[in-house]
């Protein structure tokens, strides 16, 4: 809910700026034109004012349409939250809600990774586009990509639009962009233009960033192939990637977007909650290490086993025995038993397996090795 509110707030400020700018201009223009002026001059001023007001109307109408879209998304999210409360009691509805949440997390992750077209298609397919701010992610990704292409204009336009918020938070993004433009002028050996640029765009940052301004101005004494630090790093092309990351961090912070994808957070927490030592009990390849795997454990699956290797094990205070045949618990109706080769199974699932595979009476078959043992050789297993 925070992001639509921030977008509505920004939209209203933009509307106010557009209206105040035109009203101020028209008041100054008309006051400077005396009523006794030539009729042609008066008519020209009025025509110009009328044209500017028409342009202002088009801008405001566009902003109002954006405002309606933001309000529509806010309304859809409030209704979605209301449905969550109403439907959380019913198990089937709860499962549908969880699936919808999963779709939303996946689409949001795809937007962060730059798969905008696929993410939009998926959101429309599952009818969750009102629960996501797709255009916001697309815009931020395009600005970050422009910085990686060494194009600073989109980012500077964004900084100008959010100038008051950046100044209030003492954010250094605009200064870093201006500093990079200054560096590029020096790299091209346009020293006179670089000095003029610094006087116009860097001098205003002296109060807050005097050491950084002095340091970057010292580049005038060094060529781009210098090995002297920190000037070598200032000339580095890797700074463009730093600027792109810095913009995304600033953008997400101002828009109340989590710095890390909620899908990654949910996945790491879920993997850690399910991960046990038995999931990694053998160093053999996963295709051969089947005895320690269960059909229902996500961590035991080849897709997630490697992914979960970096997360911590779950904090389990109680032991739960899982039947390797069914993936279900080994309890009173399916108590754990040990066959002579040391393998442990649930008693009921072992009998069902033997019946299914037509093993003769009073005998059981080990599903892992195929060995057949008499029932009398089976022993109950106890956990101490």
From TrEMBL:
SMART domains: CRA, CTLH. A zinc finger (RING-Gid-type) spans 297-369. InterPro entries: CRA_dom, CTLH/CRA, CTLH_C, Fyv10_fam, LisH, ZF_RING_GID. It is found in: Cytoplasm. It comes from the Eukaryota. GO terms for cellular component: cytoplasm; GID complex; nucleus. GO terms for biological process: proteasome-mediated ubiquitin-dependent protein catabolic process. Residues 136-193 form the CTLH domain. GO terms for molecular function: ubiquitin protein ligase activity; zinc ion binding. PROSITE patterns: CTLH, LISH, ZF_RING_GID. Residues 297-369 form the RING-Gid-type domain. Transmembrane segments: none annotated. Its main location: cytoplasm. Keywords: Cytoplasm, Metal-binding, Zinc, Zinc-finger. The keyword Hydrolase does not apply. Belongs to the FYV10 family. This is Protein fyv10. It comes from Taphrina deformans (strain PYCC 5710 / ATCC 11124 / CBS 356.35 / IMI 108563 / JCM 9778 / NBRC 8474) (Peach leaf curl fungus).
């Amino acid at each position: 809910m925070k992001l639509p509110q921030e977008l509505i707030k920004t939209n209203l400020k933009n509307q106010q700026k557009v209206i105040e700018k035109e009203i101020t201009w028209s008041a100054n223009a008309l006051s400077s034109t005396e009523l006794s002026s030539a009729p042609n001059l008066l008519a020209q001023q009025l025509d110009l004012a009328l044209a500017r007001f028409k342009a202002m109307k088009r801008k405001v109408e566009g902003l109002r349409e954006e405002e309606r879209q933001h309000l529509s998304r806010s309304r859809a999210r409030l209704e979605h939250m209301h449905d969550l409360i109403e439907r959380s009691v019913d198990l089937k509805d709860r499962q549908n809600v969880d699936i919808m949440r999963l779709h939303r997390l996946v689409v949001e992750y795809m937007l962060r990774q730059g798969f905008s077209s696929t993410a939009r298609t998926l959101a429309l397919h599952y009818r969750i586009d009102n629960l996501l701010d797709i255009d916001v992610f697309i815009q931020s990704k395009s600005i970050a990509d422009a910085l990686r292409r060494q194009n600073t204009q989109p980012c500077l336009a964004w900084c100008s639009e959010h100038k008051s918020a950046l100044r209030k938070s003492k954010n250094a993004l605009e200064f870093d962009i201006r500093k990079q433009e200054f560096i590029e002028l020096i790299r091209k050996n346009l020293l006179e233009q670089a000095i003029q640029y610094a006087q116009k765009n860097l001098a205003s940052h002296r109060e807050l960033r005097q050491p950084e301004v002095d340091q970057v101005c010292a580049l005038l004494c060094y060529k781009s192939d210098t090995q002297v630090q920190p000037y070598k790093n200032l000339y580095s092309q890797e700074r463009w990637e730093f600027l792109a990351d810095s913009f995304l961090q600033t953008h997400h912070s101002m828009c109340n977007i989590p710095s890390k994808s909620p899908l990654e957070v949910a996945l790491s927490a879920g993997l850690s909650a399910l991960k046990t030592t038995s999931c990694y009990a053998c160093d053999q390849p996963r295709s051969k290490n089947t005895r320690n795997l269960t059909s229902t454990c996500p961590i035991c699956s080849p897709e997630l086993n490697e992914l979960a290797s970096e997360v911590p094990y779950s904090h389990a205070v109680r032991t739960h025995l899982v039947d390797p045949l069914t993936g279900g618990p080994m309890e009173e109706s399916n108590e754990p038993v040990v066959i002579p080769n040391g393998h442990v199974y649930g008693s009921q699932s072992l009998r069902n397996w033997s019946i299914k595979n037509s093993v003769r009476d009073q005998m059981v078959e080990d599903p892992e090795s195929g060995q057949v043992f008499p029932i009398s050789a089976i022993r109950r297993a106890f956990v101490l």
